[in-house]
Write a structure and sequence with these properties.
- 56% of the residues lie in helices and 13% in strands.
- With 196 residues, the chain is α+β, with helices and mostly antiparallel strands.
- The strands form two sheets. Strands 4-3-5-6 form a four-stranded antiparallel β-sheet.
- Strand 3 and strand 4 form a beta hairpin.
- The radius of gyration is 16 Å and the shape is globular.
């Protein structure tokens, strides 16, 4: 079985139509909560952030950094989190459907590859297999958001500092190189947040 990923500029018409629906569900702006989240942040992210007591812009900024894909929205192109994103041993891959991404995960796992980041929040299968339950569940966008929020909240309770928690979401280690990676990652996420 060979696996093929799609590039945003080569997506079939049916997929672009499906994408509009998906964007509406996971990226459409909605009434914000009392935390006055910017209107750019989709309602699903706002709700999960509210439930986990995480700033919504941070949760959405991480998703943009982790699974962002440049998509056409009307006449504009915007980066949006893509739920069928995998990163396999350092190689990013995007799939047109949940089923295609699921098949890819199954393929990699059968071949002993477990370093797979999955979904909107790119939760690592190797390190968080128990939280992700199984590959199909891991690809559920809302479930994936909740798992990512759980990890982020845990990191925040360790350091009580959001920029550090953002970095630790990606690289929680204590070695100097891991801390350096964490700072670079937090910087990239903060750039996404500033664009909101």
């Amino acid at each position: 079985m060979t696996l093929k990923t799609l590039h945003a500029d080569k997506l079939p018409l049916w997929f672009r139509r499906f994408n509009r629906l998906l964007l509406w569900v996971f990226t459409a702006s909605a009434v914000t909560h009392a935390d006055a989240s910017p209107p750019e942040i989709p309602s699903a992210y706002q709700q999960v952030a509210f439930n986990y007591q995480i700033p919504a812009d941070i949760l959405y900024g991480i998703a943009l950094n982790e699974s962002g894909l440049l998509l056409k929205s009307g006449r504009k192109k915007k980066i949006r989190p893509w739920p069928w994103t995998l990163n396999v041993a350092g190689m990013p891959r995007r799939y047109p459907t949940r089923k295609a991404a699921y098949r890819a995960i199954q393929f990699y796992l059968r071949h002993g590859i477990t370093l797979i980041d999955i979904g909107l929040m790119q939760v690592n299968w190797h390190h968080h297999k128990k939280k992700l339950i199984d590959p199909w569940t891991a690809l559920d966008p809302l479930f994936n958001l909740r798992v990512g929020a759980t990890i982020l909240k845990h990191e925040y309770t360790q350091v009580k500092n959001w920029p550090q928690a953002i970095g630790r979401y990606h690289s929680p280690g204590k070695k100097p190189q891991q801390k350096k990676r964490a700072r670079r990652y937090a910087s990239r996420v903060m750039k996404h947040i500033k664009r909101l």
